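wait is this the right file?? whatever heres the structure
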């Protein structure tokens, strides 16, 4: 995801970042389990103070949009009702394993589609 900051906007920078993450999660651009840039890395990239990014991340964490896992970083949380959260977590685990195995995306989609359509 590419973050943007509009210095001319009347909206505080931390709120711009917070809104961009929420919008990306809603649109599916950021899936559950996606890792966000580090506070310092994003601040450097955008030319803003690290405290501004930290404030946005804290607000997102309070709203349970992201979760911080200590030194591992900040990640998009599973969201929605219980069934949707479990489905997101399963999809993330599947995607992680597919990447580890080096399976092309189109092949992985075909595999999961066949598995979902199989009689159970």
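ok assuming it is, sequence goes like this
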């Amino acid at each position: 995801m590419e973050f943007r900051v509009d210095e001319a906007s009347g909206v505080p920078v931390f709120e711009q970042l917070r809104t961009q993450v929420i919008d990306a999660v809603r649109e599916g651009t950021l899936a559950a389990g996606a890792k966000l840039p580090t506070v310092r890395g994003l601040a450097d990239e955008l030319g803003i103070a690290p405290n501004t990014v930290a404030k946005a991340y804290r607000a997102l964490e309070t709203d349970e949009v992201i979760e911080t896992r200590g030194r591992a970083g900040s990640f998009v949380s599973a969201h929605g009702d219980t069934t949707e959260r479990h489905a997101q977590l399963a999809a993330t685990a599947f995607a992680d394993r597919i990447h580890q195995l080096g399976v092309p995306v189109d092949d992985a989609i075909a595999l999961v589609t066949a598995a979902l359509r199989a009689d159970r």
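Residues 110 and 116 are 10 Å apart (CA to CA). so i think its the right one actually
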